[in-house]
Write a structure and sequence with these properties.
Blueprint: E1 15-22, E2 25-32, E3 39-43, E4 48-51, H1 52-56, H2 59-72, E5 79-85, H3 89-107, H4 112-117
Parallel strand pairs: 3-5
Antiparallel strand pairs: 1-2, 2-5, 3-4
Helix pairs in contact: 2-3
């Protein structure tokens, strides 16, 4: 049963908010203290809301999103509501993962060393390289002919 964000009473006492980014994907993540095991992803593009497993479809991406909970031992203690836009499904999953890690840090700042050691607080800054003029792409060149 999928619930809408408006169905949750979002107050500073029962939610933790953070933003995660990866490539072109941006995820706004709310951790819901009162609703454990509720995982909803809302796509800004389609204005639909999905169950997390239904949205990411691949088990590896689902495990990647849940990794911050596993590392800190907070499995089953929070629900996730996230809205994502931009990028592909893999980048969106990593953006949600990064947002979850930052939101857990808001919940308990003592988790910082654990999350840092797992590499969850370092944003992956790799972006697509821009196309250069006079070339086919970022690195690919047009075929050169001497005559």
């Amino acid at each position: 049963m999928i619930q809408k964000l408006k169905d949750f009473k979002l107050t500073p006492e029962n939610t933790y908010y953070a933003t995660g980014k990866r490539k072109e994907a941006v995820a706004r993540v709310w951790l819901l203290r009162d609703r454990p095991n509720t995982f909803i992803v809302g796509s800004d593009k389609t204005n639909k809301e999905y169950d997390l497993r239904e949205y990411v479809q691949r088990e590896t991406l689902y495990n990647k999103i849940m990794y911050p909970f596993k590392v800190t031992g907070h499995e089953g203690k929070f629900g996730i509501y996230a809205t994502v836009r931009g990028g592909g499904i893999s980048a969106q999953a990593e953006a949600i993962m990064y947002g979850v890690a930052k939101a857990l840090l808001q919940h308990n700042p003592d988790l910082r060393p654990t999350l840092k050691k797992a590499g969850l607080l370092t944003r992956d800054a790799r972006e697509k390289e821009r196309k250069k003029y006079g070339q086919m792409g970022a690195r690919a060149k047009y075929r050169w002919s001497k005559r």
